Amino acid sequence: MVAGALLWVAASAHAAQTLDVLHWWTSISERQAANSLATALAGEQITWRDAAIPGGAGVGAFKVLKSRVLSGHAPDVAQLIGPTIGDWAQLGLLLELDDVATDEDWQTAFFPTVWKLSRFQRHVVAVPVGIHRINNLYYRPEVFAEFGLLPPRNWAEFERVAAHLQRAGITPLAQSSEPWQVATLFETLLLAETGPAFYRQLLRQRDPNDWLDARVRRALERLRSLKRWMPQPLAQRSWDEMARGFARGDAAMWVMGDWARGELNSFGLEVDRHFGCAAVPGTAGMHLYSVDTFAMLSDDYGKQRQQEAFARLAASVPVQLTYNRIKGSVPVRRDIDPAQLDPCSRQSWQTFGQGEAVQAPSIVHRMATDEGMKDAIIAQVHRYFSEDQIPATEVQRRLAAISKALK
């Protein structure tokens, strides 16, 4: 009986030192970034039990999370981002991290936008781990140098560069037909046309008439016009497959969030040497962002100590620098040394640090709006991109009607 009791106590202690972490990081660089967090936890004698769910933009992971919570098997830690954090907090499902935030002075250390995203009704309910910039144009320096080309700063320059490359037999622009990737390209074009202020107004105020604005129409028309610079026929390829293709030289340019840079780095490629990084034409000085965050699911508070340790570690300066260097994102803290960042990361971190005036929350990556509006925008934009007979004005009318219905 005594031996059995001791075994039970030992097993319980071991279980209590394990955190079940649900996320959607499954590419090479994402796995490496997750491993860096797991290694930091191991230093605290806490085991990261991995629950990675494949699927770009977290579509599959959100479905699994809901299913697990409803079945009574919620993970200890879950990747949640944007307005969805508030949805889960409102249900009383998230552990409040106020003590950790106060002890570590997160309010001072974090960028104001990040601090705001971490809170719900004056309580800290999530730990941010990295800021992604989405309006990135990646290009192949050796190809540009061969033809004496420079990274395009506006769309007129882009058209000239793309035409030159196409005449030389080089595919100018990489693109997948996967809906969220098409919509990610669109939101960068929308930002280029509208600027951050109107972009935020469009998604936050939910005035249906804003969707009828000429700038929205121009962004849609540019999305379709860019098809002539893409490989034909377009295939539905995952973003990490696109990264491998870009690394092989399948195309000269690619618009994608900076998780792509993390993936290119995982192949042994270096920024400014093997690939270049610039802002999408028309968006220099702007930051279309997504912030990766983790929330702690509270049940009986049996894992509170381990969950708080995770939060404390994930936001610390050493872990921030290590993790974001691998992931391609940048630290959520404004007290790090920018000299430790590569040129592309440094530009992202410094631009974001200029404040809300230059910031635009991603639609596709759950920063700007609720799930219903996000899904509607992705569906309408993808349909428009795929079916050439649909006029841009019809998409605008549909989005206006959806915005009105969901408001």
UniProtKB/TrEMBL annotation:
Places the protein is found? Periplasm
Signal peptide range? 1-15
Q: Which controlled-vocabulary keywords does the entry list?
A: Signal, Transport
Q: Name one GO cellular component term.
A: periplasmic space
Record protein name field: Probable sugar-binding periplasmic protein
The entry's function note states: Part of a binding-protein-dependent transport system for a sugar.
Q: Which family does it belong to?
A: Belongs to the bacterial solute-binding protein 1 family.
One Pfam family name is SBP_bac_1
